[in-house]
Design goal:
single chain, about 270 residues, alpha/beta, 8-stranded mixed beta sheet, 7 helices, globular
Length: about 270
């Protein structure tokens, strides 16, 4: 017997094949979602440390460089981890975890509209020199790919890539120490850098040139390197704004949170050599 010109046994076999295929797909183990070609930001945070850094002392719980959860630049209200976790524009991917002796916590976020990834590392306050060196190595393209495993929308996400934008947040350690060696940029080049630390343009310029990176935002004087400035700068960077627009965004955020004049603050930030 035929059905619409085809033998019945052919249709039955075809149907069974389709069912087997669907069942097989349902039984597959869930696979990690591969890292799409989205931009990546790597943030190096040197935790505030009253004992090991030349900073104006802050309250003890904020200036303990071994306590990430309460540190001024990480777990406090305007610290990187807390501020980005509370932002509606960024989605945290999983829980923070320790990387090694130097890095107390690593945490990652994904920008809700652009898909940009941000991976941030909290270095012990006493390891500030290591934080600066790792930042410059990343700026030069000498560090291995950043790795992070987390979840987004209930699906596993695996990040493994080098950063497009590298960021340093914390005390300007180059005010206190010299580096053992410089980090010469390779052929890759093209990375941009944000350095939120006091007078970072004056102290980091030579090292950043050697690294072959381009300044996107840095400072000309004393400042509080809290996360609202970084978020504002990233908003502009993700939107594809010019360096000058990003500088003005950062200044506006800093003036708002520091309750001071935006005109005066604008002189604090620079975006060129």
């Amino acid at each position: 017997m035929t059905v619409f010109g085809r033998p019945r046994n052919f249709l039955i076999a075809y149907r069974r094949l389709l069912i087997a295929g669907v069942v097989g797909l349902m039984c597959l183990e869930p696979q990690a979602v591969p890292q799409p070609k989205n931009k990546i930001v790597h943030v190096f945070v040197a935790l505030a440390d009253n004992a090991h850094q030349g900073i104006v002392p802050v309250p003890a719980e904020l200036g303990d460089g071994d306590d990430a959860d309460r540190n001024l630049y990480w777990g406090a209200a305007f610290g990187v981890r807390t501020f980005f976790t509370k932002s509606k524009d960024w989605i945290r991917l999983g829980q923070p975890y320790a990387v090694d002796h130097h890095v107390l916590q690593r945490v990652a976020f994904r920008h809700s509209s652009s898909g940009t990834y941000l991976v941030a590392d909290a270095y012990r306050g006493g390891e500030i020199k290591q934080a600066v060196e790792d930042f410059l190595a990343a700026a030069a393209g000498l560090q291995p790919a950043i790795e992070f495993d987390g979840t987004a929308g209930g699906k596993p996400v695996h990040i493994e890539a080098k950063a497009d934008l590298v960021v340093y947040v914390g005390h300007d350690g180059l005010m206190d120490f010299s580096l053992q060696h410089s980090f010469q940029g390779g052929k890759e080049g093209g990375r941009q850098a944000i350095i939120l630390a006091c007078a970072s343009k004056a102290y980091f310029a030579d090292e950043l040139r050697r690294a072959g990176a381009e300044p996107l935002l840095w400072t000309t004087g004393l400042m509080a390197p809290e996360a609202y400035t970084l978020k504002a700068a990233l908003d502009g960077w993700i939107a594809g704004e010019s360096k000058e627009q990003i500088r003005r965004r950062a200044a506006a955020a800093y003036a708002q949170y520091q309750k001071t004049s935006q005109k005066a603050v604008l002189r604090l930030f620079a975006s060129d050599w």
